[in-house]
Write a structure and sequence with these properties.
alpha/beta, 2,3-Dihydroxybiphenyl 1,2-Dioxygenase, domain 1, four-stranded mixed β-sheet, VOC_core, Glyas_Fos-R_dOase_dom, VOC family protein
Length: about 130
């Protein structure tokens, strides 16, 4: 059976150029006409220009969630999380959740969430301290 190499999240955006700038300048993605990818598609999106503003529909907060996620990316360690957080913060990212650590019997989960110009929420998390 053939294997899937990667997948991307499709985002309907209100302003294609503003979205492309955000993903390039803030998240450090490679940007083409409508593809935005980082780290060999570990984080990837296909941007589609909305016909109407009401077509832009980020996810709602789910049960037991404090903030919503439209996509979620995993990083190796908490140190990697800290590095990403500082890089995104320096580039002007808007955070809807600052880094938080949740302790569990299996270890500590660390995550933060940023939003793009259309309020699509991108979560970043790691379960490995270092």
């Amino acid at each position: 059976m053939s294997r899937v190499k990667f997948s991307v999240k499709v985002l309907v955006v209100s302003d294609m150029e503003a979205s492309k700038r955000f993903y390039a300048d803030v998240l450090g993605c490679e940007v083409t006409d409508w593809w935005v990818v980082r780290d060999d598609y570990a984080l990837g999106f296909k941007l589609i220009q909305a016909d109407r503003i009401e077509d832009v529909q980020p996810n709602k907060v789910g049960k037991y969630q404090e903030v919503s996620w439209d996509t979620y990316a995993y990083v190796e360690t908490h140190a990697d999380m800290d590095e990403l957080y500082e890089a995104f913060k320096a580039k002007g990212a808007r955070f809807i959740q600052e880094p938080v650590v949740t302790e569990a019997d299996w270890g500590a989960w660390k995550e933060f969430v940023i939003v793009d110009p259309d309020n699509y929420a991108i979560g970043f998390g790691s379960g490995k301290k270092n």
